[in-house]
Amino acid sequence: MRLAFMLAAAPALAQFTITLAGPDGETSVDAIATVGTVDPGDTLETRFRLRNPSSLAIRLTALRISGVAFSLDGQPSTPYVIAPGTNVDFTVRFAPTAFGSYSAALQVNERLILVRGEARLAALLLAEGEGGWQPVDPRYPVDFGRVAANRTVVRRFLLFNEAALPVRVSRVEVSGPNFHLDGDLSLPVDLPPRGEIGFRIRFEPARAGVFRGQLRVDTRVAALDGAAFDPPLPAAVVELPSDAAESGKQITGVVRFAEQVEAAGRVRLTLRFQPAADGTPDDMSVQFLPSASRSIELSAAPGDTRIPFVFQTGATAGLLSLWLESGPVPREARLVIPPAPVRIHVIEAERAPGAILVRLDGVDNTRSASLAVFRFTERNGREHSPIRVDVGSALSGHFRESPLGGLFSMRLRFPVTGDAREVTGVAAEIHNAQGAGHAGPIRF
After folding, report:
1. Which secondary-structure segment (H or E) carries 396?
2. Of the chain's two ends, which shows fewer C-beta atoms within 10 Å, N or C?
3. Distance separating the N- and C-terminal Cα atoms of the chain
């Protein structure tokens, strides 16, 4: 008996391709991949691509790199299945710390690829931070932090030669708004082995904002970042003149800062008033001028140490408070307006047929005026007997209705028997709970 055997060819295992993926396209990788040249302390990142061109899935079981200064980033965890027609990208990171030639073994499943890179002969660039001196990584900006506008932050940098050969430094430049090289460097300079040279960079923002500069050391470029904010206004208080505690006055006060203002800002002033007598209505004539309001904003410019403002004390006895909002805690200045006798600001008189007309304008900050007394004189100097007028009822009704406190204006008519032209002068006084206020005599 004969046995017949049929032999069939085994199917080939699916294989993926390995390429370098760059901005100009992909380059096939065989046994050796060269990533390029970089300065010591810098990092060069190269993107590799595993592509499955077959119609079968490929299982990725090993993806690692072994060698000084080389590492992987963005690689998938193994095992990993690469579907037909898809690809997987990962990055080979080359970060040498010293001059020389470097190599590493990149393993992709059973395949080994020699990865090579060069570190040129250059000084290592370091920046001083909280943890001491650290190499400057060009992938990340050197951060100068946040600082108030018109203030300065200085960071120290160091160029250090780790190589066994002298290194020449020919160029150190700083560019960008608000970043400046502090002092002069004598360049070019040859650094011997283990030699170093230091320099400083100032960040001096003139206004609030986010800023970026650039540090260039020969072929190396590092970004510089800094942010600035407007400094808060200095501590401030409200100052009032010593003679301010009186009704019916326009007062110029000041907001005084503890030091010069560095950046423009605003403060808010608010007036509050509490009448001395219980049940007395508010006095709306207590207000800032010229806005005729109880709250104002004042602008502070750089260099200011004081801001003036004007307010009027109104026409009512009581407690006047000025609240300053500048900073986290409001500050208060108090002004006690004491009760006072009536003040007569205007006294005028004129003749009318058969009468004398008298006008009195004034302020009664107690709102308690009750009696007015008038003394008329004739052309020959003779003074008539005082005329007493009960004004309490009329004025109390006026004060109840008026929003302007104790301000009043009275018009009185005095009948005259005979020739009114003979009456040529008048004086007046008005009495309240605090005493009498006088005006005149005047001639008319």
Report:
1. helix 392-401
2. N
3. 161
Peptide bond into 135 cis (omega under 30): no
Q: What share of the chain is helix, strand, coil (3-state, %, to 5)?
A: 5, 55, 40
Does this model's pTM top 0.90? My answer is no
Contact 39, 99 (CB under 8 A): no
| CB-based contact 38:53 (threshold 8 Å) | no
CA atoms within 13 A on the CB side of 129: 10
Cα-based angle 285, 288, 292 (whole degrees, multiple of 5): 65
Q: Cα(311)–Cα(298) distance, rounded to whole angstroms?
A: 13
Alpha-carbon gap, residue 30 to 270, rounded angstroms: 79
Largest CA distance in the chain: 174
A 10 A CB-CB count for 148 gives 16
Query: Residue 195: how many CB atoms within 10 A of its CB?
Result: 15
Are 438 and 428 contacting, i.e. CB atoms less than 8 angstroms apart?
yes
Beta sheet of 142-148, edge-to-edge order = 142-148, 220-229, 209-217, 172-175
As given in the structure block, the two tokens for residue 172 are: 């150190």
Residue 14: the pLDDT is 60
Tally the residues of the chain: 444
Q: How far is residue 115's CA from residue 110's CA, in Å, rounded to a whole number? A: 16
Ordered structural domains, the chain, with CATH: 17-119 (2.60.40.10), 124-229 (2.60.40.10), 236-337 (2.60.40.1930), 343-443 (2.60.40.4070)
The partner residues of 199 in beta bridges, in order of sequence, read 157
* pLDDT tens string 344-372: 999 999 999 989 999 999 999 999 999 99
